[in-house]
Specification:
This protein is of the alpha+beta class. It contains 1 helix and 4 strands.
Length: 77
């Protein structure tokens, strides 16, 4: 019987698409190309030069407001 997407799969090897390994992989790629090279962003609808991308991003801070109800109202934290 075919798997209908309801069973859990297992990965082969280490996860390397998140975390420190991925960050080091991306940094290697960015160093190997010129600053005038472009990458596609926004679901492929736009292009940005690599030199315009933030090199060091901070942690995302919690927002000032919280949505309530069905997302129609907001309250201060």
């Amino acid at each position: 019987m075919a798997n209908r997407g309801t069973k859990k799969g297992s990965s082969k090897g280490d996860d390397n698409w998140t975390g420190k390994k991925f960050k080091s992989y991306v940094n290697k790629l960015l160093k190997s190309v010129s600053d005038n090279a472009t990458v596609s962003v926004g679901r492929g609808t736009g292009r940005v030069k690599i030199k315009d991308i933030k090199k060091k991003g901070g942690e995302r801070k919690k927002s000032k407001y919280v949505s309530t109800g069905r997302g129609t109202k907001r309250k201060k934290r």
